[in-house]
Amino acid sequence: MNNKLISLKGISKVFKVGDEDFTALIDVNLEIDSGAFMSFVGPSGSGKTTLLNLIGGLDIPTTGDLFFKNIKLSSMTRNQMAQYRRENIGFIFQTYNLLPVYSVYENVLFPLLLNGSKEKDAQDRVMDIVNKVGLSDQIKKRPSQLSGGQCQRVAIARALVKDPVLILADEPTANLDSKNSIQILELMSDLNKQYKAAVVFSTHDEKVTRYVRREIGLEDGKIISDK
Predict the structure, then answer these.
(1) Which of 36, 77, 105, 221 has the fewest Cβ atoms within 10 angstroms?
(2) Per-residue pLDDT averaged across 208-227, rounded?
(3) 214-219 vs 20-33, strand pairing mode
(4) CA 207 and chain centroid, separation
(5) Sign of CA dihedral 184, 185, 189, 195
(6) Cβ atoms < 10 Å from Cβ of 75
């Protein structure tokens, strides 16, 4: 059985910065398995977030090919790329990116509505996921009424609710204290095992290293380690 979820072949990414070219990634070759729990680590400017954005279909490579299963992302139209993101990927961001005027329940429901579900059909799914991340008693509150750790739990629930095959987490513990960081990492590890979605972190946080099963080291746009 082919267990490869994402394949990157000769991926490079060059950005225009004023009159200069900035090369963020250089000839990256990488495969990510279904159900992976792994991280991209490296200093600022090493290419971690760029790599995450390419895998998530938020950007396109300058050269090289990126495959989701056996489908080449560069052959997709803009609408197909949007569908790829909606149906297959959950995003978790450093700054949570929650909708401030919506409650916990509404924030978690939102991706299902985008995918065409009706609220009455999605309600049980939302309640179950909110319960899984331990926020049932906060479900009517807005993000401004929650702690940072609770906001990140909402973001995790929102990423999981549509049952994605891949979750991309960009510095998800960066704005959290040590206790909340560990709680979030333990929760994501448990949910990875339960839901089988692959999880890929981009992180500076050394605590993440204790939890992931694979760590990709990046420096100056190149992979320098895979352990």
Answers:
(1) 77
(2) 94
(3) unpaired
(4) 18
(5) positive
(6) 9
Domains of the chain: 34-59+75-226 (3.40.50.300)
Radius of gyration of the chain from its Cα atoms, rounded to whole angstroms: 17
pLDDT per position as a tens digit, 35-88? 999 999 998 889 999 999 999 999 999 999 999 998 999 889 999 999 999 999
Q: According to the model, what pLDDT value does residue 94 have?
A: 85
Which ranges in 65-205 belong to alpha helices (H)? 78-88, 104-114, 119-132, 148-160, 178-195
Separation in Å, CA 220 to CA 7, 50, 117, 200, 225 = 21, 12, 43, 20, 13
Residue 179 phi/psi, 5-degree rounding, is -65, -50
The pLDDT tens digits for 110-146 are 999 988 899 999 999 999 999 999 999 999 999 999 9
**Which residue matches tokens 């400017």?**
45
Structure tokens at 68: 């989701």
Helix, strand, coil percent content, the chain, rounded in steps of 5 = 40, 30, 30
Residue written as tokens 């919506």?
Answer: 102
Contact criterion met (CB below 8 Å) for 38 and 168:
no
Query: Given the structure tokens 């629930």, which residue do they identify?
Result: 157
